[in-house]
Amino acid sequence: MNVIQTEAAGIVQLVMGGCNLDRVLADRLAANPGYSPQQRGALQDLSYGTIRYYSRLEFMLGKLLERPPRDKLVSHLLRVALYQLEYSKAGSHVIVDQAVRASKRLKSPVSGLVNAVLRNFLRERESLRQAADTEKTSCYSYQDWWIRELEQQYGERATSILEAGNMHPPMTLRVNRRCTTTENYSAMLAEAGIANKHVAAEALMLLQPLSVERLPNFAEGWVSVQDAGAQCAASLLDVADGMRVLDVCSAPGGKTMHLLESADIELVAMDKDEQRLDRVRQNLRREKLSAKVICGDASQPSAWWDGKPFQRILADVPCSASGVIRRHPDIKWLRRSADIAEFSDQQSRILNAIWPILDLGGKLLYATCSVFKQENQDVIERFMATHKEASQETIKLPFANDPPGQLLPSDQHDGFFYALLRKND
Questions:
Q1: Strands (DSSP E) along 143-287, which ranges?
Q2: Is 369 noted as a catalytic residue in this protein?
Q3: Catalytic residue, candidates 232, 249, 319, 369
Q4: CATH numbers and ranges of domains, the chain
């Protein structure tokens, strides 16, 4: 395990230096194919957990050290060990011993320091917890600007949003209605000993996450992994047989597949990232579905549009991803306040660019996985002010949404925003 602690410390160092967590973790796992499933799971947990609670662990470590070690990797190793002591079920003495052993693998002689810091933490744990709770950044483990933004928008509800962002995300399935019913698949899971809960029309939430290989008929396309909040898109867009539908920014393809499962449509899936489009193609093959896949820039339709209007458009635009940070905790530290305005401008450019290729009487669903108003209703209101032919439709969601169209992260779904626009004659 001490090898995994050192590996996790290296991952944390790279991520806090600006690298993407998913990519760094994937690279390290690929470089170590001999890791057992338990080691792979432990590395993911230590990396994600340490980054999730980074500022809280940083606060506690600051109280335990007179000055930071010269080697930054030692500091990250200590944060990984503190995460284990605070949030894992392993015995304290085992964690300390493993961290000391891991420190001996480093070039600098710091095993004595690591041992002393971690044992002091165990002695002072309660007072350190209380001290960390007095400052918002260490209490909730977010950047200060992020906390202020949520408090300004949501008032007292900001606390529950912040706390939800630190939860372990649920694993939710989308049942393919072309293959079976939600009720039948739920029964199949139960028969296989997989406890599940019906949370929306085609959404089954597993009580314990597991490998997709264990899911009945997964390889045959009977079911896909997709958050319950994300599953709202297909029903809101209300596609029908024969319609021409555009899914911009479609990768990795979850909503694309859901639309194709819902009706016999002519679908164009486009995205500017060719590598991510491979995921769309893989999903199409698994479910034996067909769509035209295009690599292009959503804000430049003249470069890829064939001139035929669409009756429905899904615009799941790039955003801060502030509603899905429990799945991507590095976002909390890599985002900057100025990024939100930049995303908002990009979202407006895309919306304005694709609106002309929507047919008269057609509908466009604007979607983000953000909880920031600047990326959501503010974008819609700015668009509506310059497009008198557009009207915003009232939508019904299977979960509480306040303000309208805004899903806040909860134990059943991630955070999303939806706005349905109609182009009037």
A1: 171-175, 196-200, 203-206, 223-225, 244-248, 266-271
A2: yes
A3: 369
A4: 2-137 (1.10.940.10), 171-225 (3.30.70.1170), 232-423 (3.40.50.150)
